[in-house]
Amino acid sequence: MKKALLLLFLSVFLTKTYAQDYFPVNESVHNKSKNYTVFTNATIYVSPTQKIEKGTLLIQDGKVVSVGTNIAIPKNSITIDLTGKTIYPSFIDIYTSFGIEKPKGNMTPGRSRNPLYDTKRTGFYWNESVRPEVNGYETFKYDQPKADEFLKAGFGVVGTHVPDGIAQGSGALVALNNENNSKQIISNKLTNHFAFTKSALTNQQYPSSLMGMMALLRQMYLDLDWYKKGNSETKDLSLEALASNEKLVQIFATEDKLNSLRASKIAKEFGLNYVLKGSGNEFERIEEIKNTNAKFIIPISFPDAYDVSNPYLSNQIELADMRFWNQAPTNLKVLSDNGIVFALTTDKLKKIEDFKPNLLKAIKYGFDKTKALEALTTIPAAILGKSDEVGSLKTGSYANFIITSGEVFDEKTVLYENWVQGSKFVVNDINAKDIRGNYDLTVGKDTYKWKIDGTADAQKSEITTVDAKKVKSTFSIAKNWVSLVIKPADTIKSNFARLTGFVEKADALSGKAVLSNGDELVWNAVKTSPFVAVKDTLKPEKPNHVMPVTYPNVAFGDTKKQTAQTLLFKNATVWTNEKEGILTEADVLIKNGKIAAVGKNLSDASATVIDAKGKHITSGIIDEHSHIAISKGVNESGHNSTAEVTIQDVVNSEDINIYRDLAGGVTISQLLHGSANPIGGRSAIVKWKWGSAADEMLYKNQPKFIKFALGENVKQANWGIDNPTRFPQTRMGVEQVFTDYFQLAKEYDENWKKFNAGNKKGKAPRVDLELQTLAEILNKERFITCHSYVESEILNLMNVAEKFNFRVNTFTHILEGYKVADKMKEHGVGASTFSDWWAYKFEVNDAIPYNGPIMHNEGVVVAYNSDDAEMSRRLNQEAAKAVKYGNVSEEDAWKFVTLNPAKLLHIDDKVGSLKVGKDADVVLWSENPLSIYAKAEKTIIEGVVYFDIEKDAQKQLAITKERNELIGQMLQEKNKGNSTQAPTRKEKREYHCDTLEQL
Amino acid sequence: MINKNIYKLLLLFCASVQINAQQIPAPKQSKSILILNATAHLGNGKVIQNSAIGFKDGKITLVADATTIRLAADAYETTIDASGKHVYPGFIAANTTLGLVEIDAVKSSDDQEEIGTFNPNVRSIIAYNSESKVVETVRPNGVLVAQVTPRGGTISGTSSIVQLDAWSWKDAILKENDGIHLNFPSSFKRSGSWFEPGVIEPNKDYPKQAEEINAFLINAKAYNQTTPKERNIVLEATKGLFDGTQTLYIHADEEKQIVDAIQLAADNQIKKVVIVGGFEAYKATAQLSKYNVGVLLRRVHDMPTSADQDVNLPYKMAKILTDKGIVVGLENSGDHERMSVRNLPFLAGTCAAFGLDKEVAVQLITLNTAKLLGVDATCGTLETGKDATLFISEGDALDMRTNKLTTAFIQGRNINLDTFQNKLNRKFKEKFGQK
């Protein structure tokens, strides 16, 4: 028995597999075929733009020998007549993990907050998410069921790699040749892969955030350069692999439009050329996507409509998500219209068979068919540098092509065969006859009406009695053999008839019928009328009305980017924050994005005049400490020092909190790293230019800042007593961490200075982004904003700084600053604090609402900040608390949220007051801005009105209207019987200092 | 003259601060007091520009227009001239954990939440720390009364209402066991985890969870029809819900929750119901009106729950509900909830900034809250016969720019408005020679 199975296995194996010429064979003798195969009379697309009518395709040995209309056909040719059929090059999907199992770690993310620094590997890069040494082909195992799915969808060649880690290693190019395993690997190392994903195989905590991944990529490339130049004393197999992979096609999977921009930023910094594997939301930031100048690989997985039949539940769905459902099918058209070069991928599809319907949907929404074909053939081939081998039917190319009944991107077109390297894969029987129509069926004495319809490649049948009663039956047709089982309705006995017959002519069928008693009869069916497609009589389904894209593409976005205006505010109370103080009945002129004039009786012919009588005008609020609009992690908590990471990498331009801040009169925020580690990351100073891309929001030529932290958060005091895992666990340890790192940075800096002074001879020191950043502090090129609470730790950091001969720029929170205000003044540090927070942890037990005023009276520059998405839109009220608790003058209190934070951020030369020549960052208030009754009516940045209370009301109406229209569209979608998804909403986390998370 | 006396009194207390972390509760008021010429905000929507407010033996005896009232010269033993100032009834903080937790992150100072699902028998009042340092910091902003409420579970327990100047929890009681707090299950659930939130999706268990509450209430009602020999202290604790002596506070934010919860309470013949939270109450006003249910609106200094909402929706909700005839009070639960009780007046101020009449905004944290908590017979307005729990502010008390209390009385007792925080303020100002 065993032997028999083995034999069976062998025979299957051997009949299916042809091997290389020099492989030993166990199949009688060598049987090598040098015959040609020739396809004649076909419409042939040699490439998407080169079409031959009545053409001939000649192949041999899996390659195209010639193609054209006037081809000499060798005698030893097998000819296949393809009259009426069309040949296209098979499709290419660059981005798959075909035949490769995704590594599964035994750890789940977020499993441990323990910072594991050590690597399990020997001889490789220190971070286990950097794995360029992994080669996809080494674990590749041809997966025939999966190959069949690809082949059925028209694909002939796929790229495959191990989708694990940040640097994932090399990918191979595989031909979906089910018959010849020696030909399957076209190229074993063709692509080199990257992604913003941690390896499943690591227990290391770093990087725990997106900004950590960005920093790790940078450090990796710097190390690569240094290593290549022979500066390293030790061997690093990862860097060696990375170096040897440099010549490959570099593919970065980004999974989001903003991440595409981030990967592109790395590419530009290091002179790389990433092909970006996108996500399908590129249309939402198409300008910026275009400006990357990158080529893309784009998935076409579109979301299902939401099931909105329950109004309670459908309220939860946000406009942005509904809109994405509505707009996603236009992505390919938009990319194409903008001249972006992209290939298509099946990645992200629930099943590969969805590929065609989704592509047809994209075409229905305006995507050009020729471009679609290019995106599946010539473009991926060109991206891979394989245009001579795949993607077209030029002479010498692999004979990878599909045979269809007509135009490939037509709903009704049938895909018959997919040839890969000359091996045929049958999808639908090319010789199958279309027997659709209405017949009179005779089985012995019985007669029936027989209707055969459906599609040509999926014919369906229905049997009725002569008087139109339905009769139960089952039908199938394969290889032109019809089989039909009829169970007549007028009997309760199992009185059935089994009919079979071979189709010779499509209009007269006949064969043998076997009745339930075993009698055999002849059956006949005569066509009475031809098949009429029902759908053909209907108009094709129209695409939904597509909603306009807004910037950002969420509620309250604008369809057009806003421009600077010339505005003249008349007769307002003007809080200048300058020596002029608070002017009454004064005018403010804004022009060319700047404050052009402040005073009485101003006029400007080109200005829009706004009557501001009874209203107040101030400069915009500046929030020194904010965590809104940050993507994927506010803390890189993997190490106790993470000076290498920067929030500038992860500003999220799409966050609704930006608009909400504007509605509270906030124009500038410093986005800070969290406070999980003593040395945190670098910050981003941003102007809230709602609608702009993240990079445009970054304050121009911004001073460099870094976040430090002290106290309970960094010593993990509130993590439970069982969690003493990371040094430091006490304030004593914090001092040592700082001393250690600054000493390291000092030595690092000295080494570099020595090296540079010596004309860069000898081995170069390694560039270390972390120490480089800390050295900038020592060299007074970077400022520290330090999270702090109690007296002792405040003094400690100033003490460490003084020993290293620099000063701390800002203490943030600083709730016990009032106890050491004199020492702060002496050191020259500013304070950015809360007005009245306390009692939330032990270290804020002595926090008092008089803190700000006492420090202010002592001559310390004091700001009030939010550290909270909600409070940041009421900072004007927080400033008023300095008046309430500390009797600070209103004029000075207002500076706590405007001029003083500008001073702390070293940007008061351009913002923070209404001074001629400064940026026109201006807020129009309904009344005294310190009053709880004050509302921001207009918030202006550089002359552009980003928030307008009247326009806001209009936007709300428009949101309601658009929601209703989309809900209507989705209800229709459900009525049509299309699949829907449950109403859900992405949960949004608001970050605070101590928000920890893991990617 | 009068002012001088008060200052003397204040100084006396200041001196005592040096030896006590907490302020000493004020002694019983021996004198009758008349506050003259202040703008009186009565708490019921009315305002008297030039008022005469008098009280004796802890009760208000006079609320009148000073320009028209005639009083005997010796009608009151002490007169306070409050010209240019404002008088308000003491503000009432509903649904707080004041006195139950001292420092958020210090577990050993936390007494707000018990283990278990149905805990109506758990009583907050016995854990209320009348000497909490947090309590003394809320009074100088005008918050003089609070509902002390337990948290957690499906039924958290029973709350009580206290005045905020007392030697012990027993002395603090204004109304003991005023109501039971039910956390209605959400019709949505969150997926994902703390480090990677997933989507908010329909809660499939919602009908089952709601039915569990229904079953509990049916059982509780049946139990309380008689006095069984074998006591069940859990079910016994709910008696007041069915005889109308206690309020059922239903903590619910979503429209569906609110509609279902009110129906469930009505089906079980629960007499008094208040919605706590009520973010989407503005969508369920028909049901609220039908069963005469008021709302203690959740902290209005909050974010919209969806990006599509009016960015100022939380600020406008009190106005929307008031316009629909719903009785609205405010509550302040959430992050930093104890220390931010002192910002309660400003929550009301924000409601006024976004459309509500200023006197109606005052009403949110005075009469309306008193009504919803069932203590309007003794506090919540400046009306004769009620407790003399009131304060004088230099300006509009709903605006941080002008909220500056000079004097506050609880049941006529002149309470000390000093705090340990102000003591630290004085200490370090003195160190630095600041005035």
Question: Could you walk me through the main structural features you see in this protein, from its secondary elements to its overall organization?
Answer:
The complex is a heterodimer of chains A (999) and B (435). Chain A is α/β, with parallel strands linked by helices. Chain A is built from 24 helices and 44 strands. In chain A, the strands form 7 sheets. In chain A, strands 1, 2, 3, 4, 5, 15, 16 and 17 form an 8-stranded mixed β-sheet that branches. An 8-stranded mixed β-sheet of chain A has the order 6-7-8-9-10-11-12-14. Chain A has an 8-stranded antiparallel β-barrel with strand order 18-19-20-21-22-23-24-25. In chain A, α18 links the parallel β36 and β37. In chain A, α3 crosses α4, α16 crosses α17 and α16 runs parallel beside α18. Chain A is elongated, with a radius of gyration of 35 Å. About 1% of the residues of chain A have low confidence. In chain B, β14, α9 and β15 form a beta-alpha-beta unit. In chain B, 28% of the residues lie in helices and 25% in strands. In chain B, the strands form 3 sheets. In chain B, strands 1, 2, 3, 4, 5, 16, 17 and 18 form an 8-stranded mixed β-sheet that branches. In chain B, α9 packs across α10 and α10 runs antiparallel to α11. With 435 residues, chain B is an alpha/beta fold. The interface between A and B is large, with 73 and 62 residues. β44 of chain A pairs antiparallel with β11 of chain B, so a sheet runs across the interface.
